[in-house]
Each structure stands twice: as C-alpha cells, then as structure tokens.
Amino acid sequence: MSTSHGASPGSLIPLAPGPSVPRTFAPAPRLLPRSVRVAGSPVTILTDRAGTPTPLERTPRPFTRAELEVAWVQWSALDPRLADTVLVLAHTALRWDEARALTVDDLVPHAHQIIVRAHCPGRVRRPLPPALHRRVPVSLRIRQALRRLASTPGPRGLVFTDPDGAPLRRATVRRVLDWYHTAPGHGLADLPATAAQLWADDGTPRAVVAEWSGRPAWSSRPRG
Predict the structure, then answer these.
(1) CA angle in degrees (0–180, nearest 5) for 131-132-134
(2) Number of C-beta neighbours around residue 102 at 10 A
(3) What's the per-residue H, E or C state across the chain?
(4) How far apart are CA 217 and CA 84, in angstroms?
(5) Contacts of 194 (CB under 8 A, 6+ apart)
C-alpha cells in the first residue's frame, strides 16, 4: 500500500505548525517570616503563600533564678527525683544525651565536679580522649541533689532515670512534672542555656562559661 507524500511506511509525517501557546511557569513558593508564640515563647517560622509552616530553630529562653526556684518547689511536690534531675540540668549545662548517659562513676565528689563525656545516643560507652571531656563544677546544693539521685542508680549505674528506674525520657519529665503549667514558656532545651546564663550572672568570665557549657555561643547571650 502506498503512502501519501512519498513517505515510506513507518516514517513520520511532519505536521503543519499550529498557533503558538505561551508557556507559563508557576512561581516558586516564597517563604515569608512570621512570628508566633508557642507555649508563651516567641518562635519565628517561615510560611509559604499557602500558609504551610517551616519551623526554624527555637531561640533558647533561659529560666531566671527566681523562675527556676518557683518551678522547683512545684516539681518537688509532684516528683522529688525528677525535680532534682531538672535542677541539676539547669545548673550544669548537661545536654540531654549527656544526662541520659551520666553514671555514678562520672561524679567527682571530693573535687566538687562532674565529668561530662561526649556521648552518642544508642552507642556503647567507650574510653574517649580528654579533648572530648569537660569538667563542670557543682555547688553544694547540686552536690546534695546528685547524692540523692546516685543513691538509687538506674541500670548500668545511671544517675538520671524515670520514676520507674528506666533511662530518662523527655515525655515522662514533661508529663509527671506537668511541664506546661509549672514551666510555661520554657522547654527542656532551655535548661543548658539556663546554666550558662546563671554562671554569667554570677560574674563567671565568658571563656570559662564556654568551657563549662561546651557551647561558646551561650557565654555571650544577653539576658532579655
């Protein structure tokens, strides 16, 4: 069978050009900064034009000394062990993973210090070079709290545990201590920054605060 225009079977027949249609592209969503308040604390987020939020890192809001004392009294009435735990974290700048890994062997009672080693969650403890250690001083009050906590250590000699003796969990602390009402506007992530701020308020040099906390940025954070 013959084909029109002399084209062989299976070949493509060019078509006449039709009217041109302008190509349109949807613009990329533009992120717009917006300030909101979460649990009483200002948080900056980015939203696109459809209103979809993209959270940014929350700026730490340290407890003042007075706020911490008022909250500690309320926490003590709910669970004395967890109250001591939060008090220690607010005075030592321990990160959460460091706190969960702290053992009785890390306490240096005669030197009035605790040894804080770099830890990775879920990994087996192993000897680390001194460069990954830092020594944090503790006051008499915090030593007394640590002594109470260490008197009934958890598995593997852990200092900080849940009320049932299991490794410490954020959800348990927030639930048992009724965190939303006893520490409005603050998060557990504010505890290390609280320690750095309290040291700075006591006149500790910035370089020393940076060494104790392990985070240089906190040594110069002004009290707002």
Answers:
(1) 90
(2) 26
(3) CCCHHHCCCCCCCCCCCCCCCCCCCCCCCCCEEEEEEECCEEEEEEECCCCCEEECCCCCCCCCHHHHHHHHHHHHHHCHHHHHHHHHHHHHCCCHHHHHHCEHHHEECCCCEEEEECCCCCCCCCCCCHHHEEEEECCHHHHHHHHHHHCCCCHHHECCECCCCCECCHHHHHHHCCHHHHCCCCCCCHHHHHHHHHHHHCCCCHHHHHHHHCCHHHHHCCCC
(4) 27
(5) 62, 63, 68, 90, 91
Q: How far apart are CA 144 and CA 147, in angstroms?
A: 5
Percent of the chain with pLDDT over 70: 62
Whether the model pTM is above 0.85:
no
| Residue partners of 169: CB distance under 8 A and separation at least 6 | 162
pLDDT digits (tens, 9 = 90+) for 113-164: 887 765 544 444 444 444 457 788 889 999 999 999 999 888 889 999 999 8
Write down how long the chain is.
Answer: 224
Strands 113-117, 107-108: pairing kind: antiparallel
